[in-house]
Design brief:
Blueprint lengths: L2 H10 L7 H13 L2 H17 L1 E2 L6 E2 L5 H4 L4 E8 L2 H10 L4 E5 L17 H9 L5 E4 L5 H14 L6 E4 L15 H9 L6
Length: 198
């Protein structure tokens, strides 16, 4: 294999979810692209890596100090949805059902990986609430052990705000899942989060 091709395959395979086969396929596709298109793509990646920043209010990715969501006056700034990563924010936004603002933690508490509460953007959330405009915090983080640890930590941190409504997203059985294949913890959560049929 060409050393140049090998270098590209090695670099592409460092991306999450991209194995050597997929990296090779991508490299061969790049080779077939017009030179100008490749230059535009690499310039976009370079600009993204060098110029993207985190919103000072919520931690979302932004081209400027404050992201579009936080600067949008039509959104409900009294409701903050707490998510782990920017990808989770994008997933919530895709639904078109949420019109509040966000707080991106940047991960979850994980002693095994050396991630402590101080490594997350929890202070950003607490500072925002302390200003007095936030009425509800929706915690939308994963149901993993680390997610539950983070949820517990957040609940304890938020209790000092007496007028604050704290909610979590419902947990339970996914649409299309068959009950016999669902684990006990998920069924327990589904039973606890049941709702009346209308």
């Amino acid at each position: 294999m060409s050393k140049l091709l090998d270098n590209v395959v090695n670099d592409l395979s460092r991306l999450p979810g991209v194995g050597r086969r997929t990296a090779l396929r991508l490299a061969m596709h790049i080779l077939k692209m017009e030179r100008e298109d490749v230059a535009t793509m690499t310039q976009s990646i370079d600009d993204f890596r060098n110029n993207i920043c985190h919103c000072a209010k919520c931690g979302n990715l932004s081209d400027s100090e404050v992201c579009e969501i936080c600067s949008d006056t039509s959104r409900d700034h009294t409701t903050v949805c707490v998510v782990e990563q920017v990808s989770d924010l994008l997933s919530v936004e895709k639904t078109g059902q949420y019109r509040g603002v966000y707080n991106v933690l940047g991960g979850v508490i994980s002693p095994m990986q050396g991630i402590a509460p101080s490594d997350l953007k929890i202070d950003l959330l607490l500072d925002r609430i302390a200003l007095g405009d936030v009425r509800e915090v929706i915690i939308a983080i994963s149901a993993s052990v680390e997610g539950e640890t983070t949820l517990f930590y957040l609940m304890n941190s938020l209790r000092k705000f007496s007028n604050l409504k704290i909610t979590t997203i419902a947990r339970g059985i996914g649409f299309g899942d068959e009950l016999e294949y669902v684990d006990e913890h998920t069924i327990t959560q589904a039973l606890m989060n049941r709702r009346a049929v209308e």
